[in-house]
Amino acid sequence: MDTKTKLISAAEQLFDRHGFTATGMDKLTKAAGMSSRTLYKHAGSKTALITEVLKERHRRFQPHIEVGSVDALFDALEEWIRSESARGCLFLRAYGETGGDIPAITEAVLAHKARLYDKIQDIVAIENDEQEMPELAEQILILYEGATAAAIYRGPGAVVSAHKAALALLKQARS
Amino acid sequence: MDTKTKLISAAEQLFDRHGFTATGMDKLTKAAGMSSRTLYKHAGSKTALITEVLKERHRRFQPHIEVGSVDALFDALEEWIRSESARGCLFLRAYGETGGDIPAITEAVLAHKARLYDKIQDIVAIENDEQEMPELAEQILILYEGATAAAIYRGPGAVVSAHKAALALLKQARS
DNA sequence: AGCAGTGTAAAACGATCATTTTACATCGTC
DNA sequence: GACGATGTAAAATGATCGTTTTACACTGCT
Predict the structure, then answer these.
(1) Can you tell me the mean pLDDT for B129-155?
(2) What is the pLDDT of residue B26?
(3) Helical ranges in B19-102 per DSSP H
(4) What residues in B contact A93, CB-CB < 8 Å?
(5) Domain at B63, CATH number
(6) CB interface of B with A, residues 68-97, below 8 Å
(7) CATH number (domain holding residue A16)
(8) Closest Cα to residue B164, out of A125, A25, A46, A142?
(9) Is residue A94 domain-shared with residue A163, that is, in the same domain?
(10) Which of B97, B135, B143 sits opposite A97 (nearest CB)?
(11) What is the pLDDT of residue B168?
(12) With bands split at pLDDT 50, 70 and 90, how would you rate the model's confidence at B3?
């Protein structure tokens, strides 16, 4: 594992576990096993590091939304939440901690969410004879987002409930 | 408006706008129009201040869940988000920023969420001949949570979509 | 052999953090 | 008219923040 990969993954873990602002550079260097000089050579700044962590997170998350059905979408979410984290959406957390005041971060967050909505719209269209159904897509998105949030305090079962609700809405839209 | 009220409401605004950790005590004293000595006399510590802000937030939010129907629940949420904040759930944000490591804060968050779920379960029971329907209640909760989160980047329209989805699930459960 | 690249360890930077302290002003009340 | 409560302004506390710097070691290429 090269230096940068090690840095990004250590940072992702710490940010997810303790928050962005609360995680200091000393803890990052220690966790990544490198000097602060090396860290700054690769990351440039803390803001840039956060941005890169979000972009890497998006890359790693991508396969979980690259699916062909609503059923598979929630299966993938359940797997993610069971294995990765039940600490809420890291993108929205970054947005909240920075108040939307840091353009690079805000951009990464909004890009991720735009991509998520677009992908869900694609999936919904596949399930409905290629018809665009923007509101149904938004409702699936809301269930997806809500399951991620509710899983923090209700556990992975929230994803199962959201899953069933999504299938029910889909079925109803078809008839 | 007495000193403490002024402090709590200034703090709530700053925390909501800029995040908890990123909001320093100097900004709090300035916004609340008081010296740091007075602030500490009333709040005790930053952690205690955050906790009190959350409790006050819950008190102010309470009426929006003290309703008798799912329809009214989402109407109230829409009103809250349109007039108060579309920056996500302040409780979950506090939890995320502190990593769940500060007991007083974690407690306030979990108490709020437990109360929210219980209330939704009551409402769902009212709508279904006093039958307890835990999974439907969780699905409504997830739509509620998801609308709050999605409204950050999709605007208040997300609440409208969630509202319709909730009514659809309710209708389907009845038949 | 020499050089560019990549790394470490550790100190120093000025700023800002949460919190406490010192010194003083203004109250209403007994 | 003294007193306790409640406030202010401002400096000081020591810790920690993100970032830069200094000085040095190891590597692989040419």
Answers:
(1) 97
(2) 95
(3) 25-32, 36-43, 46-61, 70-83, 90-98
(4) 93, 96-97
(5) 1.10.357.10
(6) 87-89, 92-93, 95-97
(7) 1.10.10.60
(8) A142
(9) yes
(10) B97
(11) 98
(12) confident
